[in-house]
Amino acid sequence: MVKSMTGFGRAEAKQGSYQILVEMKSVNHRFCEINIRMPKQFLAMEEKMKKIVHSYLQRGRIEMFITIEGQDIHDKHLNVDWELLSAYIDSIHKVKDRYQISGSIEINDILKLENVFTVMETQTGMEAIEEILLEQVHSASKQLVAMRKAEGDQLQKDIITHLTFIENMSEQLAKLGPTVVDAYRLRLEKKLKEYLGSQIDEQRILAEAAIFADKADINEELKRINSHLGQFTQSLQSADPVGRKLDFLVQELNREVNTIGSKANDANIANLVVEMKACLEKIKEQVQNIE
């Protein structure tokens, strides 16, 4: 069973006053590349999330978007450095006495003093949020895999249809192969009769036909095509990722079909080669999206 590399997954949950949303989408890629966009407070969890995604997916470019709504996960409180404030005020009084400066200390003056007032932040309920968040990553990944499997089933059906066409055309080529040699022998005999009349060396005609038959023989290519088709069909039933293997088999099938095309000295064979290459091109496009 093959899986596509494109899909979408979504999961959400509520934890207290927080709303947690995880969305994932994937497209085809040679390797497994995961990009996560989330609030900076949760960056420490990135590797955990990537390991979860890797446990479900082996190939593809995956983008994950994490949204957490609700009250701020940080508690804030104001801290006053009383010792520093006392030192400031003592110094101000000393300056006033020493230089005979009048005036009183206003609250606005105190608020402007550096490092006296600081806002302290403490995280609250992070463990509970992290647990729920990782659960949603699991859920979104499962939904993404389900969608990739559904699309993979459709890809598999389409590919099997094209493989059947190629197999049928391969059988037609096997029937046409011997007729090409016979047609060549008849053409050669006709040409010689036109130039030599009755003085025809039958053995020479047979020898030339044998040489042509050897050059135009496509049996080995057809055997390899049938072997590749069998491997292709078998790989489609595998539960493991087979996208790269299928891509290689498509290249090999193309190689064999091109060889047949170069050997063909017959319009019917040439037409079948064109049809086979068109089917292989469609299969190649679909294989690019298989995990």
Blueprint (SSEs and pairs):
Layout: E1 7-15, E2 18-27, E3 32-37, H1 46-56, E4 60-69, E5 74-80, H2 82-99, H3 107-111, E6 117-123, H4 126-196, H5 202-216, H6 219-236, H7 243-263, H8 267-287
Parallel strand pairs: 3-4
Antiparallel strand pairs: 1-2, 2-4, 5-6
Helix pairs in contact: 1-4, 4-5, 4-6, 4-8, 6-7, 7-8
Cofactor: a divalent metal cation
Pfam family, one: YicC-like_C
Family: Belongs to the YicC/YloC family.
Written overview of the protein:
The chain has 291 residues and is α+β, with helices and mostly antiparallel strands. The chain has 3 domains: 7-72 and 124-148, 2-Layer Sandwich (Ribosomal Protein S5, domain 2); 74-122, no CATH class; 150-287, Butyryl-CoA Dehydrogenase, subunit A, domain 3, CATH 1.20.140. It has 8 helices and 6 strands, in the order βββαββααβααααα. It has a 4-stranded mixed sheet with strand order 1-2-4-3. The longest helix has 71 residues, at 126-196. It is rod-shaped and about 135 Å long. The mean pLDDT is 85.
